[in-house]
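Hey,

Quick one before I head out. I ran the complex with S-adenosylmethionine overnight. Inputs first:
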Amino acid sequence: MKKMRDRQRDVRQRPSRGESSAVQRDTGTRGKPAAVQDAPPRRHLVRRPGALPDERLPLILEVAPTADYALLDSGAGGKLEQYGPYRIVRPEGQAIWQRTLPAAEWEKADAIFTGDTDEEGMGRWRFPWQPLGETWPMKHDGIDYLGRFTSFRHVGVFPEQGSHWSHMEGLIRAANRPVKVLNLFGYTGLASLVAARAGAEVTHVDASKKAIGWARENQEMARLSDRPIRWICDDAMKFVEREERRGSRYDIVLFDPPAYGRGPKGEVWQLFEDLPVMADICREILTPRPLAVVLTAYSIRASFFSIHALMRDTFAGMGGRVESGELVIREKSAGRALSTSLFSRWVAE
Ligand SMILES: C[S@@+](CC[C@H](N)C(=O)[O-])C[C@H]1O[C@@H](n2cnc3c(N)ncnc32)[C@H](O)[C@@H]1O
């Protein structure tokens, strides 16, 4: 496959935090469909000098069952979850063990994701008892938002991310000063709402207009409309490149990219190709007193050691610590842990 990301790179060399910049720029391509590729400048990455940050790994961050969300049971390639008022069954390839709860408990489900593509109405969902509306009210740690049955099997929240959100909230509150948060690939905005509630000024970026619309609805639902959140529909890579050129800076950056995605103008995101550049730019757009950069990755053939090494190299010379491991959800029935994603985060302290 051809290299697809057109990289609009500025040729300015800026010193990086604590070390001279290890970034050089040259030419290459990125992201636009072939027809509009014009071989713009590309970032050439060079290993940064300086001591590697301390490390902590493996770190397994767990989400336990709550009244808002619980993984009730899992097994035989499926998972049974409680999302607020609804019990939901979805496929789960990792659940290769046996179910603990009896079939009667699974059969109480309000919604089942079938995976069929040819159903009418609510896409691939089946509602065994009564047809349910597309959305329903949910809560995360006191924040109201909307759950939604999407045709991609998602319901608008990735509960395992809750571990990152509470960590971030703690950092924002403890900083006791204005904090700017950048939430890349922000989806329905839960992280943005948690950050805004904690007092941060938030910039939320996602390529999907629908997701941005849903995130705005969530802001209203959460009664946080008076909080400063910029909702931006853009390609995440293009956005950070622009922020770097403009000199915009952030204290916390979250990025939770898919393995493969597209920007609003067809820009292609491919994790293995683009992640090192994005991590590098994330370092460049930090304030002089940054707090954290949090990366999550899922559905990729890689170990957390891989993103750990990338993050440690990227933050060389910055001090702090890189913590890496997995985000897991603890099941209510037998207490098994369901792994959902890999993460690596740099924290200043
Ligand atoms: C897994 S979701 C992120 C979930 C989020 N961290 C959360 O917990 O709510 C990935 C998001 O990336 C967005 N996306 C995919 N490609 C993108 C791109 N090139 N630029 C910006 N956003 C993109 C999708 O629209 C989707 O909302």
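Residues 162-175 form the longest helix (14 residues).

Talk tomorrow,
K.
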